[in-house]
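Researcher: Next entry in the queue.
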Amino acid sequence: MKKATMRVVVRQKLAGTSTLKPVNEQAVVALYNTSQLITQREAVSMEIRKILTESVKNFNIVLDDASITSLSFGREFTNAFEAKQVAAQEVEHAKFITKFIVEKAEHDKKSDVIRAQLNFENLHELNFESKDILHDLNLESKDKGTQE
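Model: Structure for this entry, 148 residues:
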């Protein structure tokens, strides 16, 4: 069910006793699907204004303005729309979480590479230091051997 509330401003050009045939704006609203009413509200409003203008022109009435002031939809549509909004929010949340996990994994990977490089450099330095120590020990033992 779709329902529109309209604001219609009219003025009568000349005093007359013509009988005005009422126009049911709900019948006009029924010509459009729910999506059109939401996304093309101004265009729908202009079409309703055009139809109303045509219907009153033979009665010396000028339609100054007609616009949709509110739209309401059936419970089923409202529930479906809310479910769609919730699903869209869940998708956005999942995208955010996925992006966060990927970025964290990339950061962790970079950290691991840097840590491995530092460990390699430390081991490399230790290797040189141990060679220096062994060399010094070798020299000391040779010096002891020559002193005896």
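Model: The radius of gyration is 41 Å.
Researcher: Noted, moving on.
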